[in-house]
Amino acid sequence: MKNPDVYLLYEYMEKLPLTVRMKITLDAPVDAAILTKAAQEAISRFPYFSVKVGLDAEQNYILEHNDKPIAVLPEKNESLTLGSETVNGHLFAITYRNNCVWFNFSHAFCGAKGALFWIKTTLYQYMTKQYGMIEAPKDIKLPGTPVTNGEMFFPNVNQLPDDEPGYRYEGGDTNLHLSRILKYMFNPFVKDNYYYQIEIPVKNFMEYAARVDGSPSTILTAMMYKVSTRMFKEKKDTFLSGRIPADYRNDIGANESYRDFVRFIHVKYEWRMKNESIEKLNMHARSALNAQKQPELSYERFKRLVRIHKGIDEQPNLKAKKKYASK
Questions:
Q1: Residue-wise burial string across 248-261, b where 16 or more C-beta atoms lie within 10 A, e elsewhere
Q2: Which of 49, 59, 199, 311 could link 318 by a cystine bridge, Cβ 3.0 to 4.6 Å?
Q3: What's the pLDDT tens digit per position in 87-116?
Q4: How far is Cα 327 from Cα 325, in angstroms, rounded to an integer?
Q5: Crossing angle of helices 295-313/318-325, nearest 10°?
Q6: What is the C-alpha to C-alpha distance for residues 19 and 80, in angstroms, rounded to an integer?
Q7: In the 8-state DSSP scheme, what is residue 250?
Q8: CA 289 to CA 34: how far, in whole Å?
């Protein structure tokens, strides 16, 4: 079986690398020397992240062990190319400035859940070197501890049920052409002043969400719908569809895996809803969310993923594999 982590690389290397960045703000300025040492110790715990991309004889991407140090670099507010010489070929890298640390990683390997394995361990190693020994939280994966079967688990598609979902939500992707902004969303450094950072006070936001029986994802979806109705002109027979990521690892038995098992739950908004309150739009999102929380939909999503992997494998060369993956 090929390493499942390679398949998104065909799509991202053809289009955009889709580097995910997570920012951590510390109470004091970063000590670069300590951070660099902590980073090397931490990445040693995750051999599945400490890799570089290569090609085999059949022009398949492969992941090989990378024994070069993980890059720890000053933050420069510019795109960092993972896998390049700048970062020693790694697909994980760290940047820092003042009291902030950015953890940069390729979405091909994991999402936030898996990346937090690495981030928490790095921060723990840094803090203990900076401030002395700290009792490690139970979820920290310390250097020297073994990689578990649960971390590496990838389901056998043939062992998943073929049951049909009890109900199918008629949502679907938004039918407006958004491709003109996608490249800026994926890489915000492509063009200046194309997007604006919005800071939402966490305490007020969470209190509001609790008061209206919402969640951060459903409230933000409602808010973004409101924004979109002001950005796009209403057109007959079109609609706006919010997409809420839903982690389905528990449905397929991959509870402890570092890999990203996410499907999107759709929230179909009609133009006639544009003057409704955030509270009402949130309830609409909650209803859609509940209707699509069915394990059968998770089985379908995973099986589709495996079919895509198989289709990539069947292509004759690298160019064809990239074209197939980027459809």
A1: bbebbebeebbbbb
A2: 59
A3: 999 999 999 999 999 999 998 889 889 999
A4: 6
A5: 160
A6: 8
A7: G
A8: 44
CATH 3.30.559.10, domain 4-147, yes or no:
yes
- Residue 71 to residue 82: CA distance in whole angstroms: 10
Sequence letter at residue 143: P
CA distance 194 to 189: 9
Going by the DSSP 8-state scheme, the letter that residue 164 receives in this structure is: P
Q: In what order do the strands lie in the sheet with 100-106?
A: 19-25, 100-106, 92-97, 72-74
Q: Which tens digits make up the pLDDT trace of 129-150?
A: 999 999 999 999 999 999 999 9
Give me the residue spans of the domains in the chain.
Answer: 4-147, 157-325
Number of neighbouring beta carbons within 10 Å of residue 290: 11
Polymer length in residues for the chain: 327
Q: Token pair 């971390």 is at which residue?
A: 151
The pLDDT score that the predictor gives to residue 300 is: 95
167-218: per-residue pLDDT in tens?
Answer: 888 776 555 545 545 555 555 555 555 556 678 888 999 999 999 999 999 9
Phi (first) and psi of residue 7, to 5 degrees? -70, -35
Sequential DSSP letters for 110-153: --HHHHHHHHHHHHHHHHHHHH---PPPTT---TTSPPPHHHH-
Whether pLDDT at 232 is above 80: no
